[in-house]
Design the sequence.
């Protein structure tokens, strides 16, 4: 039994190492230039070993999106553990998602591409299930913050229920991150656009029905969230070569 467990751990460790090597290659050359053959060469394994982990490039992409979700889950759990009320936790998790796009843009982009039907049709059910599990855990943490905001009377919307408002907020954050955070060409990209981003966020969150926070309060939340995200990102930097 111990031998079986040891072998399983070795496989899991190698799986993670391949993901980190792949991420480093994507940071350098982009995902479109990454092949499983190049990954095998860079990682020092045979093609057969790599194919034992990832049967196709789509499997690797799904695992990269799962890695993105695992990091986001860590941010969300850390925020949930802070002595904040529900509405501030909702804001904090939204800010953490946006900051994740800043510190790990390659993972963020992989997570978007991995949502497409073209990828999901080819990827293995096992890889999809692994990602779905992490994302369900993320949803539970967010759901807890939303439930707290409801219990504390910090959500009021006569038109839609909180679950619909959460979906709308998620869509806004995803679109905003993709359009404004991944390209310096946009008006509110970069540190100089922080106040503009926070104004848009509090208007959006408040418009959906949650308590609207002022910009000074949001700046405080942002500093705390940024520290959390960058602290987690720093743990991965030596392995995958990604700089926060």
Sequence:
């Amino acid at each position: 039994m111990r031998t079986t467990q040891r072998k399983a751990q070795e496989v899991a460790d190698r799986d993670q190492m391949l993901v980190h090597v792949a991420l480093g290659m994507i940071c350098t050359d982009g995902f479109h230039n990454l092949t499983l053959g190049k990954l095998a060469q860079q990682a020092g394994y045979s093609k057969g070993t790599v194919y034992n982990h990832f049967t196709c490039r789509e499997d690797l992409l799904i695992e990269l999106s799962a890695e993105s979700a695992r990091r986001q889950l860590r941010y969300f759990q850390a925020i949930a553990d802070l002595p904040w009320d529900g509405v501030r936790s909702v804001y904090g998790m939204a800010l953490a998602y946006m900051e994740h796009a800043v510190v790990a843009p390659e993972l963020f982009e992989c997570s978007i591409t991995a949502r497409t039907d073209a990828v999901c049709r080819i990827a293995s059910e096992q890889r999809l299930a692994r990602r779905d599990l992490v994302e369900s855990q993320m949803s539970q943490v967010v759901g807890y913050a939303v439930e707290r905001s409801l219990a504390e009377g910090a959500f009021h919307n006569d038109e839609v229920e909180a679950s619909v408002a959460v979906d709308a907020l998620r869509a806004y954050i995803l679109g905003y991150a993709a359009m404004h955070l991944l390209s310096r060409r946009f008006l509110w990209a970069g540190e100089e656009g922080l106040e503009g981003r926070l104004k848009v966020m509090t208007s959006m969150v408040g418009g959906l029905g949650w308590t609207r926070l002022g910009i000074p309060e949001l700046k405080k939340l942002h500093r705390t969230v940024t520290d959390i995200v960058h602290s987690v990102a720093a743990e991965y930097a030596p392995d995958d070569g990604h700089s926060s």
About this structure: The chain has a mean pLDDT of 89. DSSP finds eleven helices and no strands in the chain.
